[in-house]
Amino acid sequence: MNQLESKVKDYFTFWKQKDIVQLSKLMDSEIVLQDWDNFVVGKQAVIKFNSDFFDSVNLLSLDILSIFFEENTSFTELVITIDGTQLTVLDKIVFNKKGFITNIRAYKG
Fold first, then answer.
1. Is 73 exposed, middle or buried (0-12, 13-18, 19+ CB in 10 A)?
2. Contacts of residue 65, Cβ cutoff 8 Å, sequence gap at least 6
3. What is the Cα–Cα distance from 73 to 33, expressed in whole angstroms?
4. Is residue 25 classed exposed, middle or buried when 0-12, 13-18 and 19+ CB atoms within 10 A define those classes?
5. What's 27's domain CATH number?
6. Average model confidence (pLDDT) for the chain?
7. Residue 2 — very low, low, confident or very high, per pLDDT cuts 50/70/90?
8. CA angle 54, 55, 60 (to 5 degrees)
9. Total domains present in the chain
10. Strand 101-108 relative to strand 27-34: parallel, antiparallel, unpaired?
11. DSSP string for the chain
12. 51 confidence band (pLDDT: 50, 70, 90)
């Protein structure tokens, strides 16, 4: 497993554990997160966005179906279950040269 793959798997492990402290250690200060409903800019804003989301759900699970890599970018197909509702999601995560996440783009469907 290379360093990028390890960081991606760590990201999803921390996310499903609702571990905002460990998630924040992976983020660049200028991170951008975009999903089908939200556009969030900056580390503190992304941390707050995730914290608010984690506080709003009781049961959260995530299964990685596949991961592909292209240079500093990962593409991960996931099945996420939020309080019994299952979603299929594709996450595109971009890392900078220092290994921090600069962009997360989530696609539902």
1. middle
2. 77, 78, 79
3. 14
4. exposed
5. 3.10.450.50
6. 96
7. confident
8. 40
9. 1
10. parallel
11. --HHHHHHHHHHHHHHTT-HHHHHHTEEEEEEEE-SS-EEESHHHHHHHHHHHHHH-S-EEEEEEEEEEETTEEEEEEEEEETTEEEEEEEEEEE-TTS-EEEEEEEE-
12. very high
**What's the half-sphere exposure (Cβ side, CA atoms, 13 Å) at 51?**
10
Q: Can you name the residues that pair with 82 across neighbouring β-strands? A: 60, 85
Domain extent, residue 87, equals: 3-108
| Cα of 50 vs its chain's centroid, Å | 9
Q: What is the pLDDT of residues 68-108, one digit of tens each?
A: 999 999 999 999 999 999 999 999 999 999 999 999 999 99
